[in-house]
Design brief:
Helices cover about 25% and strands about 30% of the residues. It is of the alpha/beta class and about 325 residues long. The longest helix has 14 residues. About 0% of the residues have low confidence.
């Protein structure tokens, strides 16, 4: 079977499409014929540490959707032919192994491409907004870098939860494209200068929850944007800035909470722990089309280099998806 591998170097990434043996589903695992897999920018960024050690090849892809073609020992919840989606190491391949504990049934209304866009991005948004962020209806949510995959998912989930959403982006065109998803306030900026506009939009209240997908360059400004007892989630640093100052006076006086969101150091049991709530509370929103994954562009399996180039150009709004050759 064919599988994409990547090696990180000091100057970039090298991709290789290889013929490799078909993997075997071990205990509590599924072997899935991949129909679509979504790109995640963090996998291609050196600072995020998701690609393995520099100079070493690694099978890549982090989330996808497809059909179960084999079940490992101990699997009771899935059968051959089931349509599943989930986190899936090595997802840029014709077949890949998925942990049964991290697999979800694909609602009939979803295409393969839509299903592949959900598992990682929306689970991260669920972690930020619900599990750690405790976002409530009527609160203000600020999403920095709102046009990214995680940013759009946070916008969509935030609106479904009844929040008012403010989004920042350096592109007025991207912000305009998100109006149909319910973006309440669009701030066209890449600079750390948005706190006054956030305060004005919220009647001097501030943002109850900030999702920072950008990184350290906007961390201090995000902190300044927070309301009393506000929460700040850091989910990435595409700006490459991994250090930032913290205003301890504001942190103390306003009773702020700052937290990170990453799966890098979590065990598979920890990653799977949120799935029952996600399946119960969020998956029905996809099934009823209340939330429809925002797909920027779909590329054929042979075009991973082109898909990566689009992602790294920053031109996309939402998710970029790789479709296998026989997806239908």
């Amino acid at each position: 079977m064919q599988s994409y591998w990547m090696m990180m170097t000091d100057t970039g990434t090298a991709l290789d499409l290889r013929d490799v043996p078909v993997p075997t589903a071990g205990p509590q695992q599924l072997l899935v014929r991949m129909r679509a897999a979504a790109l995640n920018r963090g996998e291609f960024l050196l600072a995020h540490g998701l690609h393995g050690e520099p100079g070493r090849w690694k099978a890549i892809g982090m989330e996808g959707a497809g059909e179960v073609v084999a079940v490992g020992p101990g699997v009771t919840d899935f059968r051959l032919g089931d349509r599943v989606m989930g986190r899936c190491p090595g997802a840029f391949a014709e077949l890949a192994v998925m942990e049964a504990a991290e697999a979800m049934n694909v609602p009939p209304a979803l295409s393969w491409e839509e299903a592949a866009s959900i598992p990682l991005t929306f689970l991260v948004a669920f972690d930020m907004l619900v599990l750690q962020g405790h976002l409530r209806a009527g609160e203000w949510l600020l999403v920095n870098g709102v046009s990214s995959g995680v940013g759009v998912a946070s916008l969509q989930l935030g609106k479904a939860l009844g929040a008012h959403v403010i989004g920042t982006s350096g592109s007025a065109e991207k912000l305009g494209a998100l109006a149909e998803l319910g973006l309440d306030v669009a701030l066209c900026t890449r600079a750390p200068d948005f706190a006054p506009a956030v305060m004005a939009a919220t009647g001097r209240h501030g943002a109850d929850l900030v999702v920072n997908t950008v990184g350290g360059s906007v961390f201090a400004e995000s902190l300044r944007s927070l309301a009393f007892e506000g929460r700040l989630a850091t989910v990435g640093y595409v700006d490459g800035v991994v250090r930032a100052e913290i205003d301890l006076e504001a942190l103390h006086a306003k009773r702020l909470a700052v937290f990170g969101v990453s799966n890098k150091m979590r065990t598979k049991e920890q990653r799977a722990a949120a799935l029952p709530r996600f399946v119960a509370e969020v998956v029905p929103l996809f099934a009823t089309r209340r939330i429809r994954p925002r797909i920027d562009q779909v590329f054929d399996f042979a075009q991973l280099a082109d898909a990566r180039a689009r992602m790294e150009s920053g031109a996309h709004v939402g998710k970029i998806v790789l479709r296998t050759a026989d997806a239908s």
